[in-house]
Amino acid sequence: MDQTTDARSPLAPLRRYWHPVEDSAAVGNDPVAVTLLEEDLVLLRSPGRIHALADSRSEASGDAYRAEDRYGLVWVALEDPVADIAPFPEYADDGFRSYLSVRSAWNASAGRFTENGLDVTHFAWVHPGALGDRDDAECPAISIDLTSYGFEYAYSRESLESPFAAGGRTIRSRTMHYLPFTRRRVLSSDAGHSVQFVTASPTRARQCKIWMIESRDHHLNDPIKPYIDFSRALLEQDRRIVESQRPEMLPVDLTEELHLRGPDQVALTYRRLLADAGIADV
What is the pLDDT of residue 246? Predict the structure, then answer.
């Protein structure tokens, strides 16, 4: 069977983007097998370089692809990328403490995973007591701006008690979404700034790997375990919902999910930009 993504596949346009495929620390001199867009690859490291090769299941691997080592992750583009890897300036900022909080494989498309994270309306219903209150589930006012890389949106809300914020404080959230599957969310309060860099890799049509890297410039000497446990618990709640969604692939044709209205304006923006980029159901 041909190893490359079928040109007729809805996944084919995604070959033109950078995708994370593995933790940097997991790649050394020995080949490491990964899958991206239904294509089997091997990763290798040589002095000063990371390599991604088509896995030919023989001693000599096949075509070489672009590979970069950034933010503790290995990124691969199967064709000339149309955009750079999303920026994450806090990762290299000495004023921030950064750490990998979540690494997981989901039985869901990368599009479904990504749209869920853009959905402000689900906080009260999927994460009650952590991100929202079912007795006060009104969606905050959201402002959206289109950008050269995707879009940004912002809103403010009152925080509930969590490792990231004391209850009753105002949290200002600004999310920069980079097509197709990466977002950088900056949460600001009187305590300081917390940043979530979340990215998904479409291994197969209905499977993805996800990473969340977090940075903060406050409570720098706190143990990180409560922060990691909090984030992992939230994503586990999301996973149970996202893996059960139908259709399994995210429909870019908005007529297929006519329930999307008003508060879903972020999801609508995301789908329109995917369609504009020639990306079909993901």
Answer: 65
